[in-house]
Every structure is written in C-alpha cells, then in structure tokens.
Amino acid sequence: MSQPDQYFLGYSLPELERLQRQAQELAPDSNQLFDRIGVVEGSRAIELGCGPLGCLEILSQRVGPKGSVVGVEISADAVAFARRYLAEQKIGHVEVRQSDGKATDLPRESFDLATARLVLVNIPEPEQIVREMVALVKPGGVVALHEADWGLEYGSLAALDRLLSVFVDYSKANGIDLFIGRQLPRMLQAAGLVDVQINSILQVCPLGHPRRMLLLQFAENLRARILAQGLIPEAEFNESIAALKLHLEDPATLVLDIHYIQAWGRKP
Fold first, then answer.
1. pLDDT for res 21
2. Which CATH superfamily is domain 13-152+175-202+258-266 in?
C-alpha cells in the first residue's frame, strides 16, 4: 500500500477488509453506546480514524437526512474503501476526508458528537486525538470513545503467552499503549470534559464466532513488522502461530474477545 503510517496493524488489503468486517461485528456495541449518549436526528457528527467504514453507516442512520456525518482518515486507501462502500450502499449525508485525526483543520466547536473506535489503541500520542475531538465539539457536545484493553489473561498456553508478549513489545517499541482502555476516564477528564461515564464489554467467542481467530489475524498482519524489528525468530513465530491455531480450533477452549471500554463525556 502507498500510505506509510504508525498505525499498529498497518493498512494492508487484508487489514482493510478485516476492518470492514469489524464494523459490522461491533455495530451492536456502537449502537448501544449511541443509545446511551442519545444521538438525535439532525445532529452533526464526526468520526476520527474511521478507516474503511467505522461507525459512518450507523451515524448516518441516526442523524438522518437533516444531519451530517464527517469521517476523517489518514490512509488514502482506507478513504477510497469507505467512499466506495458508501456509494455502493447509497448512504448519503456522509463526507469522508483524508486528513490526520490529530489535526483535522476543521472548524472548531462545529459538531454535536466526536467519536473514535479502536483508534487510540493503535497509535502513538493518543492524547492528541482526544484534544482534537474536544476542540471539534460545541459546548454541550459529547466526545465518545470505544477502545481496547489487552490486560486480560487468555488462558494457559505457552504459544499464546509468547505471542502476546511479542505484541506488547512491538507496541511499546512504537509508542503504542495496548492497555489504553483503562486510561479513558482519566484522559477525558484531563481534557476538560464533565459527566464522564464508562461501559465495559467482554464477550465469549465460541467456535465459529467471527472474532475467535482475531489474534491469529493480528499476528499475520503484523508478521513483516515484527520480524523486521527482530522481536522473535521467524521459526518460533511460525511455531507459536501453529500452536495457537490448534488451541483456538479446539471446541473446549474458552476464548474471550479483547476487553473493550467505552467512555464518553460532555464539553462544558
């Protein structure tokens, strides 16, 4: 792909396709979040780091034709994916802009809602995204985040422990915090928001669940970067992936999705 970036999982074609599938998989959780916030018809909403779809379709349905939605994404490839999907599905009143979510150059205090989903966990200096979101919403507007926290134990398997340790080492080496979810309330309060609230999501992924093999997908997406940085020998990496695959394919294995934290607050 043509766009170099610091995004944790990169912008390969398989990753863009995975993100579009993820948008559908996480739609119920995002709808629950927007229900709690109370996104109303006629609102003006923005999603930073929308990727190839994100919450754009959901937000479009909620704000209706009297409202508007802006998606901001740094990757040209992801922007093209999103625009193509919206056109194919005939989804209107949504604009997708190629821009850095840390500095959008959009008018200050011009949105009722600024949201981001699984963005902070994938980038360095996530506080800059939060500051930009706060600047973009009007007084009384809401900033809402849906983030991951990799802090749970996934089971007693040496190969899994090894891969998770490599993910953590890779993230630390690149200024990324895989445990950002637990920081959300503090970050929102530090950015000046009030009435900060949180919601915790943890799901079981039985055999056949679309997210049961998520860690294997991450491993393959990160393969080139991890090996290039010498974080694990290739033979050991391959052995760990093979062992994890067998473990996840065992119906007796309890698999939990990554722990998600939703947090939102209001601008005074």
1. 87
2. Vaccinia Virus protein VP39 (3.40.50.150)
